[in-house]
Amino acid sequence: MPTVFSGIQPSGIIHIGNYIGAIKNWVKIQNDYPSIFSIVDLHAMTLRYDPSSMENVIFNTATALLACGVDPEKCSLFVQSAVHEHTELTWILTTVTPYGDLTRMTQFKDKSEQNSDNINAGLFTYPILMAADILIYKADIIPVGEDQLQHLELTREVARRFNSTFSPIFSEPKGMLTETPKILGLDGKYKMSKSLNNYISLEETEQTLWEKLRGAKTDEARIKRTDPGNPDVCNIYTLHKNFSGEEEVKEINTECRKAGIGCVDCKKKLMKNLLTLTSPIREKIEFFRSKPEKVYEILEQGAQNCKKIASQTMKEVKSVIGLKRF
Ligand code: TRP
């Protein structure tokens, strides 16, 4: 039976882009395969962060995942730093990772540009920690967004190099792309993200959601209500495709093209459908927030499950690299 592994960076705000791009898929796949999901706090350290709020941010992420339906009865959910084998394996893998390959990582280039005052070595070796996350569980199926495919290709290369240098103990994991790799933000231009403040969180109320949707970009060529619109270039329509029913999406497409529906009404429909999805999630987040002991217990149990596998793999690794005795 193949194993699933995926990771998500801890964040103070989990938005609908995270939900569609990753979490929804996790909730589905945990029914089909043994699954391991990690809140990757060590990866988050590669960008400047506030140590005094890190624990809260991790807790917040855990509550959102649980509220969305990540189910500790079906998978292991844990915090990356709680299983120290990840970092131990990372070092060993650095010794078989081609330097040239790391220099070609587009995410490293992008993040270096965006954080030119903090280009640390961790940002550079980030993909090796990711490879360790995966290989320590010998995971086979890795649900990720498109932007992580290059890191997965590197993971396969690292596995091959380790296998040929020492002994073939790792298999090559495969990425599983989510159907909607990218959800754009309210600006209709950039990927939805917390740092760009263009997001819709899972905790919007009707009021806060409408404030955001009201200002959201639609088809910019459609100026007057009577102008026909082009759904293909409208981000609100793209959101409909992800959050509304098939029939309604079809109807909106037709009506928009003949100016039968205006942008405001179209946004109102989207709001209704979004709230249908997020309102129960918001309630569950509140529930888990009021039960921190329960959340920490789930994470602890997840870490224990993972430690069993991870320490076994480390034994095998130490044996084939010539450090069995130590
Ligand atoms: N780098 C991934 C992201 O930013 C998160 C991640 C860390 C991950 N380790 C992983 C994803 C292992 C899949 C497998 O989205």
Provide key terms for this protein.
single chain, about 325 residues, mainly alpha, Rossmann fold, Tyrosyl-Transfer RNA Synthetase, 2 domains, three-stranded parallel beta sheet, two-stranded parallel sheet, 13 helices, about 5% strand, binds tryptophan
Describe the structure.
The chain is mainly alpha-helical. It has 2 domains: 4-183 and 291-321, Rossmann fold (3-Layer(aba) Sandwich), CATH 3.40.50.620; 206-286, Tyrosyl-Transfer RNA Synthetase. Helices cover 55% and strands 7% of the residues. It is built from 13 helices and 5 strands. The chain has helices at residues 16-29, 41-44, 51-68, 85-94, 99-103, 106-114, 121-135, 149-165, 206-214, 235-243, 246-257, 263-289, 292-320; strands at 4-8, 35-39, 75-79, 141-144, 174-177. Strands 1-2-3 form a 3-stranded parallel β-sheet. A two-stranded parallel ribbon has the order 4-5. The mean pLDDT is 96. The protein binds tryptophan (TRP). Residues 5-7, 9, 40, 43, 130, 133-134, 142, 144, 148 line the site of tryptophan (TRP).
Topology:
Blueprint: E1 4-8, H1 16-29, E2 35-39, H2 41-44, H3 51-68, E3 75-79, H4 85-94, H5 99-103, H6 106-114, H7 121-135, E4 141-144, H8 149-165, E5 174-177, H9 206-214, H10 235-243, H11 246-257, H12 263-289, H13 292-320
Parallel strand pairs: 1-2, 2-3, 4-5
Helix pairs in contact: 3-12, 4-7, 4-13, 7-8, 9-12, 10-12
Tryptophan (TRP) is lined by residues 5-7, 9, 40, 43, 130, 133-134, 142, 144, 148.
